[in-house]
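Figure 3 (text version): structure tokens given as input.
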């Protein structure tokens, strides 16, 4: 229910008809009515109630997800109903056109339906007939539509609230309360589902997905520990190398036009409506151009990238790299050049767009320097307060929701050997072998020695096809629900020698539960059964 008492002064704005009309719109968007009412009041104060009415009309229209009839603030049940409707519509068109006009015409017709909703059609331009049939199987499935529409709906809803200026350090930092509640509810439902899905193998071992997740990188504690081990390994490798490596910490930010609000919490007059995804794409472009220039100049950094939000949700990057000492100045100049390519002459750009800090080992380690950035973006471990003075643990919860809703990859290794091979080697601690290199690699992985592991794998800068070990992928016996072959990691290839690290076939089962109870939990039975088993 909407608490109109909080905004009772709006009753005095405009005519009686205005109030009736306004209340009707707000009641149709009760979940975000407070944002709409605040925006209405703000616009009325600045430009009068007629302008506020026009704005409310425009905002109401933009709350519809294009060509789906779904509202951005619709609940999970409404989303499910809409996905069923879209699947039925696509199936009707597919059957009608396939039999009357042929395969290619049917493909064009269903592609148009999907792409009209801003969703990418699940088929490349160059494709086989089997791939096309798999795409047809997807677009007539409600579960596929749900997997596509829900992230789009959530992301656009958060972009809507951010564009209105309500995501900032004085109001709702990093992400709106509305989207945070959505994410927390989703995580709670996922935890319940994982506790009820079990996998078993030929030896009778039975585990729940919740138990498996507890020991995987999806657990924040495991994830943070692994990142710190890798970062420490990078630093140890650099310290022990004869190449005189220097640690450099870069902070890359977006031009002003990507930021919705100022540090004061007021709307940014330079903001041009860019979404978080568009801001992240800009940063990616800067890095791609920088990386290409590094390759041309034969500059060879390795290290870690961390992505985190500004107070208004605009992403910025921290990159801790190690360069040979004689490459640092040139590398910094190249990075600065591309960071300033867009609006490089705007006020403050030269000071803030790219900050460069050379790590001084006498003042502290490079790993210690980045540790707080890793921790505050995962769980706030041993960090009292974030950059804006808020409790780090609570901020980490909001940052995780921000990354999830905007599909942001928070951490990325630059250079170094495969983390997949590293994880699989740790399964081979008991593997019998007389190969000295393999034995040393297993010991390095088992002891968490990332520096030695990388040295044995050919160093930090080494093409994948020249490394001694690579993942071994094999096709499962069963195809997926769309008739496609699925490859899974089964072990490693040491040269041409296969080594099985995952000998068992795991079968996924949902614990008995009534369909009604599953529906109450907000999880579709089909989605539960399609959950991938471990390995």
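Below: residues designed for each position.
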């Amino acid at each position: 229910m909407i608490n109109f008492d909080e905004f009772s002064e709006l009753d005095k704005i405009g005519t009686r008809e205005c109030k009736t009309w306004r209340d009707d719109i707000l009641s149709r968007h009760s979940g975000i009515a407070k944002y709409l009412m605040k925006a209405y009041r703000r616009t009325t104060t600045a430009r009068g109630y007629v302008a506020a009415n026009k704005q409310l009309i425009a905002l109401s229209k933009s709350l519809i997800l294009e060509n789906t009839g779904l509202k951005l603030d619709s609940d999970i049940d409404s989303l499910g109903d809409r996905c069923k409707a879209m699947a039925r519509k696509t199936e009707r068109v597919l059957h009608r056109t396939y039999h009357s006009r042929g395969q290619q015409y049917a493909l064009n017709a269903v592609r148009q339906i999907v792409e009209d909703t801003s969703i990418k059609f699940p088929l490349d331009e160059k494709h086989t007939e089997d791939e096309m049939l798999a795409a047809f199987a997807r677009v007539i499935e409600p579960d596929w539509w749900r997997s596509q529409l829900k992230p789009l709906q959530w992301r656009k809803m958060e972009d809507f609230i951010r564009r209105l200026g309500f995501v900032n350090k004085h109001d709702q930092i990093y992400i709106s309360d509305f989207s945070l509640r959505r994410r927390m509810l989703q995580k709670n439902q996922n935890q319940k589902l994982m506790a009820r899905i079990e996998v078993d193998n030929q030896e009778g071992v039975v585990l729940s997905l919740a138990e498996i997740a507890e020991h995987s990188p999806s657990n924040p504690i495991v994830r943070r520990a692994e990142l710190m081990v890798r970062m420490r390994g990078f630093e140890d490798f650099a310290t022990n190398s004869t190449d005189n490596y220097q640690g450099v910490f870069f902070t890359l930010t977006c031009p002003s036009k990507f930021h919705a609000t100022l540090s004061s919490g007021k709307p940014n007059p330079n903001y041009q409506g860019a979404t978080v995804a568009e801001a992240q794409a800009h940063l990616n472009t800067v890095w791609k151009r920088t990386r290409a220039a590094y390759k041309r100049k034969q500059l060879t950094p390795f290290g870690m990238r961390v992505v985190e939000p500004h107070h208004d949700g605009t992403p910025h990057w921290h990159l801790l790299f190690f360069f040979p000492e004689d490459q640092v100045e040139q590398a910094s100049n190249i990075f600065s050049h591309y960071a300033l390519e867009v609006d490089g002459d705007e006020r403050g750009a030269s000071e803030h767009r790219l900050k460069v800090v050379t790590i001084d080992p006498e003042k502290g380690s490079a790993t210690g320097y980045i540790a707080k950035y890793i921790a505050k973006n995962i769980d706030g471990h041993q960090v009292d307060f974030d950059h804006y003075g808020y409790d780090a643990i609570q901020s980490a919860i909001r940052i995780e929701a921000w990354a999830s809703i905007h599909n942001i990859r928070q951490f990325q290794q630059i250079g170094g050997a495969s983390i997949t091979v590293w994880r699989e080697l740790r399964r081979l601690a008991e593997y019998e072998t007389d190969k000295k290199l393999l034995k040393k690699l297993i010991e390095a992985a088992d002891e968490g020695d990332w520096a030695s592991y990388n040295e044995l794998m050919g160093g930090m800068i080494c093409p994948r096809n020249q490394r001694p070990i690579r993942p071994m992928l094999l096709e499962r016996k069963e195809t997926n629900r769309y008739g496609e072959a699925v490859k899974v990691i089964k072990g490693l290839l040491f040269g041409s020698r296969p080594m099985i690290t995952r000998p068992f076939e795991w079968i996924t089962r949902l614990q008995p539960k009534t369909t009604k109870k599953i529906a109450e939990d907000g999880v579709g039975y089909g989605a539960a059964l399609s959950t991938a088993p471990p390995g």
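The two ends are 46 Å apart (CA to CA).
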